[in-house]
Amino acid sequence: MTKLLANKVAVVTGGTSGIGLAAVQHFVAEGASVIIADIQDKLGDQISQDLGEQAAYLHVNVTQESDVAAAVDFAVETYGKLDIFFNNAGAQGDPSPIMEIESEGAGRTFELLSTSVLLGHKYAARQFVKQGTGGSIISTASSAGLEGGWSSVGYTAAKHAVVGVVRQAAAELARQGIRSNAIAPGVVMTPIMAKSYGVPLDQAEEFAEFLAERLGGTMPSGRVGFAPDIAKVAVFLASDLSAHVNGVTIPVDGGATAVTLSSFGQDIGLYVEQYWSQAGLRGGSREATSGVKEKT
Ligand SMILES: NC(=O)c1ccc[n+]([C@@H]2O[C@H](COP(=O)([O-])OP(=O)(O)OC[C@H]3O[C@@H](n4cnc5c(N)ncnc54)[C@H](O)[C@@H]3O)[C@@H](O)[C@H]2O)c1
Question: pTM to 2 decimals?
Answer without folding.
Answer: 0.92
